[in-house]
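Dear colleague,

As promised, here are the two records you asked about, laid out in our usual form so they can be pasted straight into your sheet.

NAME FIELD: protein one
SEQUENCE, THEN STRUCTURE:
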Amino acid sequence: MLDHRTETFMAVCSVMNYREAAELLHITQPAVTQHIQFLEKEYGCRLFLYENRKLIKTPAAQMLEDYLRSVQQRENFLREKIKNNGLRELRIGATKTIGDYVITDRIHDFLNQPDTALTLIVDNTKHLLHLLEQNTLDYAIIEGFFDKNRFGSQLYRREPFVGICPKDHPFAGREVSVEEILKETLIHRENGSGTLAILEEKLLEHNESLERFHRHICISSFKMIIDLIKSGYGISFVYEVLAKSDPDLGIFTLKGEPIVREFNVIYLKHADVREKMEWFL
């Protein structure tokens, strides 16, 4: 259980404003200041600084926040075990490719066991990382980039990243150049998605960007993207497991070294989620 001073610190980290933290905790602003000063004396470092009148966290504050969030997660798990009397309750996240096309069998296996409860949130990488930081999730299975200084991880599997097009498109079954794909309409996911980040990274290697495509369309739904691809509206890039899920899609690759990315299980750096990972993985 966090004491009142560390709870104050966590509130300041959440809102990054002493006055708002005081209102959130129903205490005075001087009390917030005193709690932070106590912790700074206890740890022998500054936790917050002002830059251009904006409150910022020091590296020490970031380390303390990450540690305290993991402590809170462990306490939440203990409370669940005491309260639920044997019920195994799991709160996990998954990026859209993984949630919709990869872990369905594992979900069935988990829910077929007695005394289990599941909350699964399928969203983009950026939002799942935020939910982890807020202790809303026990862990997440993602294909995007994450900060290894803040999150622990375990490799789930590796997956090729490929292009998709209509089955009768000239690209189908071929290896094509970046110059060729720029002449097409690109249909891609929204900012914050792992697949878009990978594509932008690949384009950057060739000094290119989304704006260089003949046209690009942003859609957050894989189902709609696939429907548009099959109807001839453009091309897209997805993981192979999704590309092979529909026999009416053509698959192509980019010239050069194959693009293969990791699917990782990620969790707060100091959290102990081994038991909950064993339940599902």
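NAME FIELD: protein two
SEQUENCE, THEN STRUCTURE:
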Amino acid sequence: MRRVPPMHALAAFEAAARLGGFAQAADELCVTPSAVSHRIRQLEAMLGTPLFERTPAGVRPTTVGRLYLESVREAFGKLAQAGALLQPERERLRVSLPPTFARQLLMARLPEYLRSHPEVEVEMHLSIPLQDVTAETADVEVRWGRGDYPERTVCKLFDDVVMPLAAPSWVAARALRGIADLGRAELLRSPLLPWRPCFAAAGLDWPEPERGAVFNDLGMLFEVAAAGLGAAVGTRRLSAAWVDTGRLVPLFGVTAPAPFTYYAVATPAQHKRAVVRDFIAWLAGVFA
């Protein structure tokens, strides 16, 4: 078997030929120019022929050197290809998410998924709740709604409850004694969470409020409620960050089953991919 030249000598030869000098090759390889010169002399001695013409302006490959350079580059290319074959292919997973779900529920848990699935490369895109609008085509959509999505594979992530919420200072300033007192208070509204389930749970046959600021993002709704703009309806899970820090307090002990919740949705074709099924199963498990 013929003796194979050392890899460091081949790398020095290729770099010097490409860059036109030993000093430039030394900079790229993080060694001294004398080390590059020594490696190339070692390679020339093994091959029994000069590979470079030395000139005051630098070096250039001899005719033999140019032919050998082609072989070296081809060999390096094959080594790179072989290395790529040994690495597991990263699988792309595109997920669309409503903004409040992403910020309040998923982002803190996502590192757990990524650590246990290093082969998956995720792309997260925000969508508009109830309108099912996203900036990118997604493999998995997390939707806020009732779960009636025709021609889709649907997985409910969890059930929740709704309750009226307000800032402690807002409550104290109004001396509210019961939910009926909200009839004379500022009620914040959102198409994502109606008031009527809370009214009905308290035995009030009231319609949806017709006045009050409207917010189509629950994070914005909770934030302005915490700032004292009015009372809002929130789910236990989504409002936890505000309630746990005392910025919002539940009112009157009233709760009701949430009319909407989050669902993981995929087309039948997307659901055939193992990465899609695994991610949906992980979502369902982490929120169980």
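A couple of things worth noting about protein two: The longest helix spans residues 63-86. The longest strand covers residues 120-128.

Best,
R.
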